[in-house]
């Protein structure tokens, strides 16, 4: 954010947006319509996917803006409690089905309970911010506003697909900015629970032995190794296309109850596939095939929804948000189909990003000042440029200043085969490390993927690693045909890529691409240029600075722990070269 000097920050309208009390807690702050910052609480608390009130994130934002809690004019919460009650009328129509009848009462009770609990949370927030107006925002509206505002486009279709936002699971909207910085989003069509693609994907993820709400990406990667034909018919019957969207068969995907005590998959589903996999058990072919069929059906449904969005809006461009928007394979399929001229996914498409959308909604509802600082913004969290580096808690580590030009030095180390953690500048928004909290490696090193998975990230051997490439050279190596700055799209690869850098090509022939521009990240652009001069390719492997089960490192101690406890060779931490 540019310095707020005239008028003083405390005299400008301040909107605090919160994602809190569920999962992926985060906070965002707008002052005078300008985005001060955004950060996920896990980056500061070290608790992955935490649902706690984001106290550390809020404290950092207030300090960054020079404000106190009393200076906040509105607190925007990313759920609207009474809207959960919209699920109740639909239960009557489910009485006639044996597959749903037994769950109707616990379902109704759970939605009433969550509605009351969400309202109580707004009361708690009022006590924490007594001078502020508490403004609950419909969940999908928060997703929509963030996805569109972050695109910077004048108009677009907006498709939100997630597990559940009050009762909505999928929305199609038309968005435009008649006045710059004043985005308007109008929902044209909505699907409601139990028609939920996120619910279905999470249910199968859990059945396959991975954590629902965390490891869906692992299932997406596993899908490339399976044969979808084995369970294609099952998923066609379980997730059925309709003229305006899709629905779930309750005989396979059990009616949702808002409690973890109720399973999501039916006995019929289990009998038709396999028993639930223990997380520590080997991955067998049946698991690969089940993942493949799930991913194939997800691609089909997402493509169908994208075509419906185009038919309803006639827009040339599409913004996609919600948790299912992190499925880069489906996003890549939509791009390849050419339904839209361009597709955009914001850096934080999941629930954390609704903190920005909620703050934007609250600001737009109460002020004429345009929004600023949201468009294509990614590096929005805390930085740690000042202060001495105390390595006493890590006696095996040593640090020295980077000699000469940092980009040239890092490129030389990478070209020599080092696997390096990079901690530099402000923390990224969203689930992908994009060059400020990254682990970097040369894709030309023999066995680099195996080494990264086994000794650095400690994760499944079938999981691929994403390439970052100079944007101006991307077409030489990837077939996507558009920019992918936030690593949210899977792209086909060229023959040059298959020949020169096969390490970044997944089993399905794609790569989750990140294009780097000089404007978007000057330092990483310089590193890629320097690496290309040495190695002959403008491509590096980029994965997040963390190990499996831990959040992306948001602070220097987290990064130093990662170096000390993993197979990283070194860490470049704000101009210092830290080694073991």
Q: Can you characterise this structure?
A:
By secondary structure, the chain is α/β, with parallel strands linked by helices. It is built from 18 helices and 21 strands. The strands form four sheets. It has a nine-stranded mixed sheet, sandwiched between helices. Strand 1 (14-19) and strand 2 form a beta hairpin. It is globular and about 70 Å long. The model is unreliable at 1-6 (pLDDT under 50).
Main β sheet profile: 9 strands, mixed
Query: Helix content range of the residues, please?
Result: 25-40%
Strand order of the largest sheet: 13-21-20-14-15-19-16-18-17
User: Alpha-carbon distance between the termini?
Assistant: 36 Å
Number of strands: 21
- Helix and strand composition category: alpha/beta
SS strand fraction: 15-25%
Global shape: globular
Could you tell me the radius of gyration in angstroms?
23 Å
Question: Which key phrases capture this entry?
Answer:
9-stranded mixed sheet, 580 residues, 20% strand, globular, disordered N terminus, 34% helix, 18 helices, alpha/beta
In short:
With 580 residues, this protein is α/β, with parallel strands linked by helices.
Strand and helix layout:
Elements (H helix, E strand, L loop, with lengths): L13 E6 L6 E6 L2 E7 L1 H4 L9 H11 L8 E4 L20 H4 L2 H25 L4 E4 L2 H13 L3 E11 L2 E9 L7 E9 L4 H11 L8 H8 L8 H7 E4 L2 E4 L18 H6 L12 H29 L3 E5 L6 H10 L4 E3 L9 H13 L31 E4 L4 H10 L4 E4 L13 E5 L6 H10 L8 E5 L3 H4 L11 E4 L2 H6 L9 E7 L5 H14 L3 E6 L11 H10 L4 E4 L2 E4 L1
Helix pairs in contact: 5-12, 6-10, 7-10, 10-11, 13-17
């Amino acid at each position: 954010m540019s310095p707020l000097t005239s008028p003083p920050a405390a005299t400008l309208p301040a909107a605090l947006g919160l994602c809190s009390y569920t999962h992926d807690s985060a906070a965002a702050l707008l002052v005078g319509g300008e985005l001060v910052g955004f950060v996920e609480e896990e980056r500061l608390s070290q608790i992955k996917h935490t649902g706690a009130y984001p106290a550390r994130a809020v404290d950092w934002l207030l300090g960054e803006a020079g404000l106190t809690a009393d200076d906040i004019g509105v607190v925007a919460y990313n759920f609207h409690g009474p809207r959960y009650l919209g699920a109740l009328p639909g239960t009557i129509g489910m009485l006639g089905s044996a597959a749903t009848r037994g769950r109707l009462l616990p379902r109704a009770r759970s939605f009433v309970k969550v509605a009351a609990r969400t309202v109580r949370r707004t009361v708690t927030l009022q006590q924490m911010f007594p001078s502020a107006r508490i403004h609950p925002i419909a969940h999908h509206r928060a997703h929509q506003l963030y996805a569109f505002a972050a695109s910077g486009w004048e108009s677009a279709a907006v498709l939100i697909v997630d597990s559940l936002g009050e009762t909505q699971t999928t929305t199609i909207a038309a968005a435009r900015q008649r006045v710059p910085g004043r985005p308007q989003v109008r929902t044209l069509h909505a699907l409601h629970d139990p028609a939920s693609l996120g619910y279905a994907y999470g249910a199968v993820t859990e059945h396959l032995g991975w954590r629902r709400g965390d490891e869906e990406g692992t299932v997406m990667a596993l899908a490339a190794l399976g044969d979808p034909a084995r369970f294609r018919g099952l998923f066609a019957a379980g997730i059925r296309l309709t003229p305006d969207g899709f629905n779930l068969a309750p005989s396979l995907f059990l009616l949702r109850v808002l409690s973890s005590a109720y399973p999501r998959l039916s006995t019929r589903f289990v009998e038709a596939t396999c028993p639930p996999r223990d997380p520590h058990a080997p991955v067998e072919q049946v698991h690969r095939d089940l993942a493949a069929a799930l991913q194939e059906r997800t691609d089909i449904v997402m493509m169908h929804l994208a075509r419906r969005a185009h038919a309803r809006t006639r827009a040339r461009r599409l913004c996609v948000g919600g948790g299912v928007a992190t499925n880069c394979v489906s996003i890549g399929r939509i791009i390849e189909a050419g339904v839209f001229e361009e597709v955009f996914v914001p850096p934080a498409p999941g629930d954390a990003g609704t903190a920005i959308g909620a703050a934007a909604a609250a600001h737009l509802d109460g002020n004429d000042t345009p929004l600023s600082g949201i468009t294509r913004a990614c590096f929005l969290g805390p930085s740690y440029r000042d202060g001495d580096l105390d390595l006493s808690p890590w006696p095996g580590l040593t640090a020295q200043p980077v000699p000469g030009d940092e980009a040239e030095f890092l490129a030389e180390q990478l070209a020599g085969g080092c696997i390096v953690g990079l901690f530099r500048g402000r923390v990224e928004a969203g689930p992908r490390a994009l060059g400020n909290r990254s682990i970097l490696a040369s894709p030309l090193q023999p066995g680099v993927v195996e080494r990264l998975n086994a000794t650095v990230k400690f994760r499944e051997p079938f999981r691929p690693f994403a390439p970052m490439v100079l944007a101006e050279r991307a077409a030489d190596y990837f077939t996507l045909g558009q920019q992918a700055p936030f690593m949210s799209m899977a792209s086909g690869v060229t023959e040059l890529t298959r020949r020169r850098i096969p390490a970044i090509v997944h089993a399905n022939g794609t790569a989750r691409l990140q294009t780097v521009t000089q404007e978007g990240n000057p330092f990483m652009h310089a590193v890629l240029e320097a690496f290309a001069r040495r190695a002959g390719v403008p491509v590096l492997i980029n994965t997040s600075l963390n190990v499996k089960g831990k959040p992306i490192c948001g602070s220097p101690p987290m990064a130093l722990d990662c170096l000390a406890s993993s197979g990283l060779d070194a860490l470049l931490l704000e101009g210092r070269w830290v080694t073991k």
